[in-house]
Amino acid sequence: MFARRRSAHASVLALLIAGSLGGVGIAQTPSALAHPELWPKAASPKSITDARTEAFITDLMSRMSLEEKVGQTIMADGSAITPDELRKYPLGSVEAGGNTAPGGDDRAAPAKWVDWIKAYRAVALEKRDGHTAIPIIFGIDAVHGHNNIVGATVFPHNVGLGAARDPDLIRRIGEVTAAEVAATGADWTFGPTVAVPRDERWGRAYEGYAEDPEVVKAYAGPMTLGLQGVLKSGQALATNHVVGSAKHFVGDGGTEGGKDQGDALISEQDLIRLHAQGYPPAIDAGILTVMVSFSSWNGVKHTGNKSLQTGVLKERMGFEGFIVGDWNAHGQVDGCTNTNCPQAYIAGMDMVMAPDSWKGLFDNTLAQVRDGTIPMARIDDAVRRVLRVKVKAGLFDGKRPLEGKFELLGAPEHRAVAREAVRKSLVLLKNQGVLPIKSSARVLVAGDGADDIGKQAGGWTLTWQGTGNKNSDFPGGQSIYAGIADAVKASGGQAELARDGVFKTRPDVAVVVFGENPYAEFQGDVTNLEYQPGDKTDLALIKSLKAQGIPVVAVFLTGRPLWTNPEINASDAFVAAWLPGSEGGGVADVLIGDKAGKPRHDFKGKLSFSWPKRANQVPLNRGDAGYDPQFAYGYGLSYAKPGKVATLSEDPGVVSAAINVDRYFIAGRAPAPWTLNIGGALAVRPIDAGAQENARLAEWSGEGNGALQVMGQPVDLSRQTTGDMAVSIRYRVDVAPEKPVSLAIACGESCGAALDVTSTFSSGKIGEWRTAKIKLSCFKAKGADMEHVSSPFALSTTGRFALAFTEIRLASNEGDAVCP
Predict the structure, then answer these.
(1) Alpha-helical segments (H) within 165-276
(2) Which residue has the higher pLDDT, 405 or 533?
């Protein structure tokens, strides 16, 4: 399956060569060789390695088999391993990745999460011959609250929390998150993120607190203490705390062009000065795990860089917990595959995240320890570190008093902290006297984000990309519209919801809520910072209301500063609300005043990311040469300290066209660079499906082969394939297929793969609109070259068939994608 598997002799030779470069684990240039003496010092608290803990581990390890030791160093994803498989493969950890949930149901009830995790734990702790009972550690991405669970408190994403400049608030957010995670049975969250995003084109920019390390440095310790509590010698974490993970070590926010999983082409001094500052305070506060980044430094993947993992993190910074990898990141190390990577272990990694590759990695790693490719001492060190964290987490004690206490999920006192966080994170960019709004006013709330909790929560919310969510998925949560309606109702005012701005009662003021749709990781990477390039529908909505003489307050939902000068000019007030999460009432707290129009709460937020003057102004960071932002780092107006904003330039600068790799047919057309080609016994005509000519009807005559094909210049979809994306089509069958229907992906005239999708289009009701998702990995498994895809969608048949469709695109697999 993997073409780059090498012989044991070749692996050993490569490692010996690498050893001559300071034992970095892989051949690399000196520019990727860290000099630990230049890095800041830190030290894990001595309570992590207390004598009682170490003695317990020594005794336990003396009874473990080699298979059990290797197993402790590997993590599998819950979607790819069953509890029964732990009997043969004694892995140390199971995780729930972005779209993983019990039974594949992202909306599973909390009780199902507990039962699911218990099933893994029970097998790991079974008493049977030849087995050492060691609890698994179950990890999850609770990155803005326990964002995986329906009903949990969802906090603002870090981009908003950075604007709050409030370390104590961050600690309290950590405490709430830990308690809600513990209630559902998990032991470990993959946070805090201490990345310093230096280029907002990066799709993970919203996971960072600030472009300047000062905020990250101030937050890393408090968030660690909030999640884990204060570590005490000879004692486990308190039962209302969970294990944390500082991530992603190191420089993930400094990649060239803001490319996800890219390469930070910077000096060691800048790597230290900008990107390392969050780790010492987290380590000093007792962080128990550190996650290494997918990305590279000067061409070398961190996952295989011994000078960083061992030399800097473990030796210079005195980190005594364990190092964990990211999702199959080891497979990107030079000479490695997902199932074979001794380099990662030798570099210092203690637990390899092998979500779906764990079985092959276990077998190969076991063989490599036996033949000496991976030293036994290195495995013993990794196992000791993993067990140390499990002891400190209290996993051997078995005490879980919070488990099953689902009343903690979204508890009123937790939501109060989140609402406070929303208030403090809002940044006022402009106000021409329209704010605060009198609570007795008639308020129109418009825009596609007005009554959409999923949109205001962003990515990493219930699903990996944060897509597919409805307000009903957030019981107890509140949209921005609902918060405004509550605020004005008590004083005799009224709020009317009209997404399109068409009102029944003329309002005194309009609040237009709009912005980015949810995304995560590489799906959020952009080529420039222009908001809504081309078809500026949100700007048109603002202008239409202004043309009617209605004052407009713009509330912008976004994971990063974007070039919005036209929208700011068209509005009377402009508020950066970031991605506020489940408590939309926090926005109303600040926008809506009392009956007299006096503020109930003032704006506190200050920009932690510089706001661009032009769409091509990237990177843009405080301290850069020629620094010239539209709104500088630290900017933020308030009611107490207002300010004038003159008309802004609406010249975006010279911008490169957005690279569209994932939208193939939207709103009645194939967006550039794609074209919709029709060949053979097939006719296609426009039809209406809720809007004028927004759909097409494809009719195969049955008089020969007919093909409906999306065509364009080759694009690289390998990252989307690894990320479990799927080809999605929203369709309606008008005539069932008479003969087999094929869906293909092509990568040139002689390269591609086809799947039989006849059952997909013959199983539903005639005339019913449905959505089908076919995993990209299905096509890769059939031989498609996903790095050079020239046709991401080609549907063909020789029989009679009629299919209407409104949308063809790539979409996240939310447990609903299949391999036919």
Answers:
(1) 167-183, 213-228, 268-270
(2) 405
* Positions marked active-site: 326, 521
Task: Please state whether the peptide bond connecting residue 157 to the residue before it is cis, i.e. omega within 30 degrees of 0.
Answer: no
**Order of all β-strands in the sheet with 791-797:** 675-680, 706-711, 791-797, 741-746, 752-756
Helix (H, G, I), strand (E, B) or coil at 419: helix
Q: What is the 3 state secondary structure string of 16-46?
A: HHHHCCCCCCCCCCHHHCCCHHHCCCCCCCH
**Average pLDDT for residues 210-237, to the nearest whole number?**
97
Q: On the CB side of 609, how many CA atoms lie within 13 Å of its CA?
A: 33
User: Which residues lie closer than 8 Å to 184 by C-beta, 6 or more apart?
Assistant: 110, 113, 114, 117, 146, 149, 403, 406, 409
Task: Tokens 């430094």: give the residue.
Answer: 297
HSE of 46, CA atoms in CB hemisphere, 13 A: 1
Give, in order, the Cα–Cα distances in Å from 182 to each of 114, 115, 135, 722, 800. 10, 13, 16, 30, 55
Q: Could you tell me the CA-to-CA distances from 222 to 250, 286, 304, 408, 795 in Å, in that order? A: 20, 11, 30, 22, 54
Give the Cα separation of 183 and 625 in Å (integer).
49
Indicate whether this model's pTM tops 0.85.
yes
Per-residue confidence (pLDDT) for residue 31, from 0 to 100: 86
The residue type at 12: V
Tokens of 420: 């406070």
Instruction: Read off the pLDDT band of 750 (50, 70, 90).
Output: low
CB burial of 667-678 (b: ≥16 within 10 Å; e: otherwise) equals: ebebbeebebee
Assign 6 a pLDDT band (cuts: 50, 70, 90): very low
For residue 623, the 8-state DSSP code is T
What gap in Å lies between CA 575 and CA 432, rounded to an integer? Answer: 12
Judged against a pLDDT cut of 90, whether residue 22 lies above it is answered with no
Beta strands at 752-756 and 93-96: parallel, antiparallel or unpaired: unpaired
User: In b/e form, how buried is each residue of 702-740, taking b as 16+ CB within 10 angstroms?
Assistant: beeebbbbbbbeebebebbbbbbbbbbbbbbbeebbeee
Q: Per residue in 94-124, pLDDT tens?
A: 999 988 999 989 899 999 999 999 999 999 9
Matching residue, tokens 């305070």: 281
pLDDT at 290: 98
Q: Tens digits of per-residue pLDDT, 47-86?
A: 999 999 999 999 999 999 999 999 999 999 999 999 999 9
**How many Cα atoms sit within 13 Å of 430 on the Cβ side?**
24
